[in-house]
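Priority: medium. Attachment 1 of 2:
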């Protein structure tokens, strides 16, 4: 796994994607947090009923 500190590394998005094609990548933000890691203050969908079902989902099953 390659750790990329966004505060000290100058990679553009294409560079990050290029590295990620070769091995897993962990991005660290300028404050040292994992990029994409949800914090306790982040609101997230509860899971049930948050997304509309695709057309025909569950219709005519069986």
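Attachment 2 of 2:
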């Amino acid at each position: 796994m390659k750790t990329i500190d966004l505060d000290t590394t100058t990679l553009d998005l294409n560079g990050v994607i290029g590295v990620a094609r070769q091995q897993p990548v962990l991005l660290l933000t300028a404050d040292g947090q994992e990029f994409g890691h949800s914090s306790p203050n982040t609101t997230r969908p509860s899971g049930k009923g948050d997304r509309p079902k695709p057309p025909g989902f569950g219709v005519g099953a069986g």
